[in-house]
Amino acid sequence: MPVPIVDDFVSATVVDRFDDMLNPFGLTNHVAVAQVGHDVLAISSLNVPPVSQGECVTGRLYVGGRLAESFGQPVEHTWRPDRVTRATVIENWRIETVTVLPPRRSGRGGAHRGDQRGWGA
Predict the structure, then answer these.
(1) pLDDT in tens, 16-73
(2) Would you list the domain boundaries of the chain?
(3) Nearest Cα residue to 112 out of 31, 28, 49
(4) What number of helices (H) and strands (E) belong to the chain?
(5) What is the percent of the chain where pLDDT is above 90?
(6) Closest C-alpha among 86, 82, 98 to residue 6
(7) Are 71 and 63 in contact (CB under 8 A)?
(8) Where are the beta strands (DSSP E) in the chain?
(9) End-to-end Cα separation, the chain, in angstroms
């Protein structure tokens, strides 16, 4: 049996329709954790110890001055160990996003604890 690779762990695509009781996928890089939101762009529950934003949602998408969620269009979610992809169609626009937490990074600029080389190294 071959050693599994990341592509072996891809989830089925889950379609989140407006007002579904879906628990969106989460990600971790072992420094920070985050959960994608129902919006195609939103992120919720971002935690980078010792800082936590709790259940706050950030990064919401607006299309034509309206929240993307308000259109009521389904959002496709696909989880991989290294990212979550989301897609929806709003007013004939197909919008796709990829959410990642880079390895060993807290999401802030500069070097990570124990890695003095910084982002560009």
Answers:
(1) 988 888 888 999 888 888 999 888 999 988 888 887 777 888 889 999 999 999 999 9
(2) 6-99
(3) 31
(4) 0, 11
(5) 47
(6) 82
(7) yes
(8) 14-16, 26-28, 33-36, 43-48, 51-52, 57-58, 62-63, 66-67, 75-80, 83-90, 93-99
(9) 36
